[in-house]
Description:
By secondary structure, the chain is an alpha/beta fold.
Amino acid sequence: xxxxxxxxxxxxxxxxxxxxxxxxxxxxxxxxxxxxxxxxxxxxxxxxxxxxxxxxxxxxxxxxxxxxxxxxxxxxxxxxxxxxxxxxxxxxxxxxxxxxxxxxxxxxxxxxxxxxxxxxxxxxxxxxxxxxxxxxxxxxxxxxxxxxxxxxxxxxxxxxxxxxxxxxxxxxxxxxxxxxxxxxxxxxxxxxxxxxxxxxxxxxxxxxxxxxxxxxxxxxxxxxxxxxxxxxxxxxxxxxxxxxxxxxxxxxxxxxxxxxxxxxxxxxxxxxxxxxxxxxxxxxxxxxxxxxxxxxxxxxxxxxxxxxxxxxxxxxx
Length: 317
């Protein structure tokens, strides 16, 4: 009963990112994508998604990059000079904790982002945050409120096991100081997710219990991907990825992930990958299948717990 959502973030960022996500879906293992409402290639992403009905599409709630969707005059506390978001998740976190960003304006902006995607005819699979900003405690409450308002059944939680992050430091891996920074970030975000997930259950929302790819952001290659797949636990998991083609449009953005996006795409479409997944007993699902998958998994576990063990059967015999 191993089920895996492979979600590509930044859908709509550039046309090269869009093409890579679609290539990863058609030729590889991507099952879901998270759409940036204010991305430069938003319209192209929406049009392309209509031709791939099996690809789930969620909302990549954004407070860090680009201009707002709401009228800038209605969300002034969210913006810097030039009328754009601060550019860094750390800057956003600092301003939220200092109450310099107003929660009612964050709610207004995120509602506008969701409404834009709904109005484009997209059936929303889930909510998550660009650079995981939705995990900040005050913002997570806003995300839950909007999920219930728009009847969106799932929200991402980044509860990554420690062992997954430690894979960055395997012998022979030339990762540099960036790996240590990403590992620490993964532990912080996993801590926030562990703290927040009880709220999801209380709100009647769903989430994958296990999460992968957080520590590997910027370092996800074929070896790292195969290692994740081989260590996947029973139950439901999500793995994030950031495929893309490093063209001029991508180079013009603020993203730190450039050529690495092509490395990820190569990993996600590597020969023999689907055969390995089948061999490992992993079922690829999208966020839209999560509620049904959870019910099936819970029923399987219940039957397993209620059924007599091999030892009990032998003893009775």
